[in-house]
């Protein structure tokens, strides 16, 4: 399943999800990567 479809299934707007994840990814530690999965993701501006 693609990230876009996973985002949709979890009620997120796919492009907003991908944009936010790609912006946050470089600053996260490996132990925090699970926070970016579609079923756990919360927008950074929320």
Keywords:
46 residues, mainly alpha, 2 helices
Cα(first) to Cα(last) distance is: 26 Å
Class based on secondary structure composition and strand pairing: mainly alpha
How many helical elements? 2
Order of helices and strands: HH
Strand % is under 5%
The residue fraction in helices comes out at 25-40%
Unreliable residue runs: none
Tell me how many strands there are. 0
Radius of gyration: 10 Å
What oligomeric state do the depicted chains represent? Answer: single chain
Largest sheet: none
Shape: globular
Tally of distinct domains: 1
What is the residue-averaged pLDDT?
Answer: 91
Q: Can you characterise this structure?
A:
This protein has 46 residues and is mostly helical. It has helices spanning 3-9, 14-24. Helix 1 (3-9) crosses helix 2 (14-24). 4% of the residues are buried. InterPro entries: IS66_C. Pfam families: DDE_Tnp_IS66_C (PF13817).
Short summary:
The chain is mostly helical and 46 residues long. The chain contains two helices and no strands. α1 crosses α2.
């Amino acid at each position: 399943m693609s990230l876009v479809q996973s985002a949709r299934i979890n009620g997120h707007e796919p492009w907003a999800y991908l944009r936010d994840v790609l912006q946050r990814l470089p600053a996260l530690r490996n132990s925090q990567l699970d926070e970016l999965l579609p079923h756990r993701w919360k927008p950074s501006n929320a």
